[in-house]
Amino acid sequence: MATILGITGTLGAGKGTVVEYLAKKGFIHHSVRSYLIEEIQRRGLPVNRDSMNLVGEGLRAEHGASFILEELYAKASAVGGNAIIESIRTVGEVESLKKKGMTLIAVDADPHVRYERAVKRGSETDSVSFEKFMADEEREAQGENPARMNIRHCIARADFIIHNDGTPEDLYAQVDDILAKL
Q1: Which of 30, 83, 92, 128 could form a disulfide with 72 if both were Cys (CB 3.0 to 4.6 A apart)?
Q2: Residues 69, 98: contact at Cβ < 8 Å?
Q3: What is the pTM of this model?
Q4: CB half-sphere exposure, 91, CA atoms < 13 A
Q5: Residue 123 has what pLDDT?
Q6: What proportion of the chain, given as a percentage, has pLDDT over 90?
Q7: Mean pLDDT, the chain, as a whole number?
């Protein structure tokens, strides 16, 4: 039977690195970020974190708190094989994930380390000051509505938490430990 994992975590913590590592192990990657970027571009909006929040929360408000997860889960199920859905950000998505029996992995690291990683990554959403980075994280960390982002709640509900303050090899060892437990 195929394994479909969900991944959550703080900004710049290393979710993408975990996904890349799992892809090398045969997992197929399904990205909330890519899904939202396609929708943002379709709507003719600028690709940035504000647009991602606006569009993501709009889709969840219109179609339900777990809409994006459901879309990606359906895609992963149709493709078959082991898959990872990145990035779970709402209480509604966690609840849906848990009902499906999926495993949720969280990734976290020191805020200054995460900011440096995000700046090096250089994506459309990462060209911000440290203050804006932390303000964005705070905005995404504590929504009460199940359709709004609440990273802290998602991390608290994770089946496994990876602390990514070390080397890539340390990170990979933690992922391997999780896979061995599954």
Answers
A1: 30
A2: no
A3: 0.87
A4: 11
A5: 65
A6: 68
A7: 90
